[in-house]
Specification:
globular; two-stranded antiparallel sheet; 130 residues; 4-stranded mixed sheet; 6 strands; single chain; alpha+beta
């Protein structure tokens, strides 16, 4: 995707297939569980692709973030969510700020938690509303 395409998606605001997070913390079990809930809800709710932007406020303001690490994101998703789905990560620069982007897609819905975690039970299914 070109930078203008990413900006156009951000300008649409949060919806069923676009999620904004100011920052992504994955140090604790609780934080990983919240991330698993967000990603599985996004892939379950998106018609084709879901977009998870990190470094973006809920109102669409860009605040930037540290670079996201593909290997870490992939490992968490493949460890905690079944069946497997397509997941791509990007670090893009918009207005001199790093924005992390996770793009998900899948056709084998529903995607479920495949193990227990903090605030996460095996076989739970999450959906986005609105």
């Amino acid at each position: 995707m070109h930078k203008t395409d990413w900006v156009a998606l951000i300008n649409r605001g949060e919806n069923r297939f676009i999620e904004f997070k100011r920052q992504l913390n994955l140090a604790t079990g609780k934080e990983k569980s919240e991330f698993v809930k967000d990603i599985s809800a996004l892939v379950n709710s998106a018609d084709e692709y879901g977009y998870f932007f990190i470094g973006v406020e809920d109102n669409g303001d860009l605040v930037g973030t540290e670079a996201i690490i593909d290997e870490q994101i992939q490992k968490i998703c493949h460890t905690y969510i079944n069946p497997a789905f397509t997941l791509e990560t990007y670090n893009i620069i918009i207005s001199d700020k790093n924005i992390g982007v996770i793009v998900v897609s899948g056709t084998r819905k529903p995607y479920k938690a495949c193990r227990d975690g903090e605030h996460l039970l095996k076989d739970m299914v999450f959906l986005r509303r609105g």
